[in-house]
Write a structure and sequence with these properties.
The chain is α+β, with helices and mostly antiparallel strands and 321 residues long. 44% of the residues lie in helices and 16% in strands. The strands form four sheets. The protein has a five-stranded antiparallel beta sheet, with helices on both faces. It has a three-stranded antiparallel beta sheet with strand order 6-8-7, with no helix packed on it. A two-stranded antiparallel ribbon has the order 4-10.
Length: 321
């Protein structure tokens, strides 16, 4: 026979478990658990078993345990989690990859019907087609202004209709109609809202960033730093190459406009005086084999053939004689 524990004993046991998790894990996913059933939660725990532990509980109790543990251990990093404990939330302690764990959690979503008074998390659209309902059920569609027609003794929806908009509360007529049509428009599961990693807290969107995204964002940041540094004439590592190039351009411009010169400026001045000296003559009529000798030898062969034709004329006959 199992011995029932008192509330005080349960709190002490919960505190020990939470302290053990805080000491053992450095990464935590904060997730909302609205409309998540016990069977669904059991499936999530089973799927994360191994590297992760799901801990649910009252927010006040979790806050109290974290504060006391931070005071005793001197580690105040976990205090960053306290502002995130709002609403029906749970903590997922993990040693695995944060992105893989969040993707695994997202797999465990269960379809749910539209209950009266529930705030719709998405838009609900009723698709066109045969509903299988008899003509006596047309009153539901008329109340909701859904165009229908009778086809082969059943009600058929003519066009798709946006029944419920995201953020609106589900009414009794909408809930009854969706139940009759067998539509379960909503799906619920643990939703990751925040991520804690070794004292840092960030949104779950950060987990979706790729290396290419990070490179683009880093390049944009370096560009901004370089622009500010150039505008303020303040040397930084990002702006130094641009400053050297601009300084060299200024020195070269002064050398060109004055009699002062140096080796690199001499070349530029010489080019400005006579650009034709630096023109490169491209080879003309290069053969397919890549040799440039063939085109040069062609005129010589033609010149050699001309005397032969003259000698034939001197002999006084042609090939057709």
């Amino acid at each position: 026979m199992a011995i029932k524990m008192t509330k005080a004993e349960k709190k002490v046991q919960y505190d020990r478990k939470l302290v053990r998790l805080l000491d053992e894990y450095s990464k935590v996913l904060v997730a909302t658990a609205d409309n998540v059933g016990s069977n669904q939660m059991q499936g999530i725990r089973k799927g994360l078993r191994g590297d992760s532990v799901v801990l649910m509980g009252k927010n006040t109790l979790i806050r109290r345990c974290i504060k006391i543990h931070a005071e005793k251990s001197g580690n105040s990093d976990y205090l960053h989690i306290l502002p995130l404990l709002v609403g029906n939330v749970g903590l997922i302690f993990t040693k695995g990859d944060l992105k893989e764990v969040s993707e695994e959690v997202a797999k465990y979503k269960v379809g749910a019907p539209a209950r009266v008074g529930l705030v719709a998390p998405i838009d609900v659209v009723v698709p066109p087609g045969n509903t299988g309902l008899d003509p006596s059920q047309t009153s539901f569609f008329q109340v909701l202004n859904i165009p229908t027609k009778i086809n082969k003794g059943t009600v058929e929806i003519i066009t798709p209709v946006e029944l419920i908009k995201k953020g609106d509360k589900v009414g009794s007529s909408e809930a009854a109609l969706l139940a009759k049509l067998g539509i379960r428009p909503f799906s619920y599961g643990l939703v990751i809202t925040s991520v804690y990693d070794s004292g840092s807290v960030f949104t779950p969107e950060v987990l979706d960033l790729t290396e290419e995204d990070l490179i683009v964002k880093f390049s944009a940041g370096v560009s901004i730093v370089a622009s500010l540094s150039l505008a303020l004439s303040y040397p930084t590592l990002a702006a130094a190459p641009h400053m050297f190039v601009n300084a060299y351009k200024n020195v070269l411009a002064i050398a060109i406009e004055t009699e002062y010169s140096y080796s690199h400026a001499d070349k530029v001045k010489e080019y400005l005086k006579d650009p034709t000296k630096f023109a490169v003559v491209a080879p003309v009529g290069v053969a397919d084999t890549g040799s440039s000798v063939a085109p040069a030898s062609a005129p010589e062969e033609e010149e050699k053939e001309e005397p032969a034709e003259e000698s034939d004329d001197d002999m006084g006959f042609s090939l057709f004689d």
